[in-house]
Structure formats: C-alpha cells, structure tokens
Amino acid sequence: MLAFCVLILAPGCNKKTETNNETFGYEYYKGAIPNSYYIYNFMEERALKVSGKPFMVVKYDKITHNILDFEFGLSEVTQTAVPGASFGVAPEPTLDASSIDYQEKLGLVSPVDLLINWPVTAWGYQITNESLNGGGLSFSFSGYGSKWTFSYLPAGSMTGGAVILDYTTGRETDAANSINMLRL
Asked: In the chain, where does DSSP find H-type helix?
C-alpha cells in the first residue's frame, strides 16, 4: 500500500519542482580582447570610440534556449575621440566593477560601461529570438537608438553587434559580428 501511494504522489512532486524556477538558467559570456562601438555627433559622424572587454549574462529558457533577459556591457573601458570628427560628444558614463552583478565570476575590471541592464522587459523593450541554420540561435533587442543582435551556440561562443537607428542616441559597431565572447 505504501509503495502504491509513493508511485501516485511521485509525479505530483516532480511537477512542483519543475515550476519552482527551474525552467530557466543563466549563462555567462566574456571576451578576452577589447571590442568597440561608436557614438555619433549631431553631424552624423562617428565622434567617440568606446572600447573594452565585452561581457554578458543571459537568462534563458532551458527547454527552448530562448533568451528571456540579459545584461551586457564592456569592462576595462577606454574612450577616445575619433580623428576628423567636426564635433565631439560627451563620454559614456561608467561604473565601478564592484557594482555589477556577477563581477567576480566575470572578472570585471573598472571602469565598466553597462550598455544593457536587466530586466530588459521592465523598460518596455522586447527581446526577439530566432533559430539559425546550423543549430545556433539569435536574439535581438531594439532600444536606445540601436538594434543589437547576438548569435550564439548554446554550447560555446557568442557574437554580435549594433546597427544605428537614431544618430542622436544610437550606438554602432563596425560589423554585425564585432562583439566576440566565449561562455565561461
């Protein structure tokens, strides 16, 4: 009789643990070399180059591998004026690395440029997920005058970049795969 009760109750217990925040996980990505993006001035010229080692923490669905939320930025940031620009722009604000979640795990070094902070959806922005040929996945985020797109393989690397949508507030990388990171 006891064995019969255990067999009947066991499936219910499993369902409870599945709904206990175990359907999502976190992955951590970091680049080993500086990557860059540009800020434009009001003349629509690249005016400031921001460089640093990229990092990203993603919250993903364990079943579909779709990205649910993420945080993205650059560590060890340097900012330099672009030669030939008619007018400069204000430098990007930076943070102390100790103020970033997972700072120790990611090995972040000040100054840090936090480009996208979570929760992304709380700011009213949407994350769009897509499957790629060859088994990879892609997700994008439009906001702050740019469209950021990242492609990744659930087992390893992440590449991405930004396309400018609004020259007064946007950011842009040299190419769609200018940002390169590996999973930790």
From this structure: 2-18, 103-106
The whole-number pLDDT of residue 15 equals 35
Alpha carbons within 13 angstroms on the beta-carbon side of residue 75 total 24
Residue 174 is inside which H or E element, if any?
Answer: none
What residues contact residue 134 under an 8 Å CB cut-off, 6+ apart?
none
CA distances from 46 to 8, 43, 93 (A): 66, 9, 18
Q: Hey, how many other C-beta atoms are within 10 angstroms of the C-beta on 28?
A: 15
Note the pTM of the prediction, 2 decimals: 0.83
How far is residue 57's CA from residue 148's CA, in Å, rounded to a whole number? 15
Q: Tell me: the pLDDT tens digits for 94-114? A: 999 999 989 999 999 999 999
Does residue 163 surpass a pLDDT of 60? yes
| Cis amide prior to 111 (ω within 30 degrees) | yes
- Phi, psi at residue 167, to the nearest 5°? -65, -20
Residue whose structure tokens are 């499957």: 131
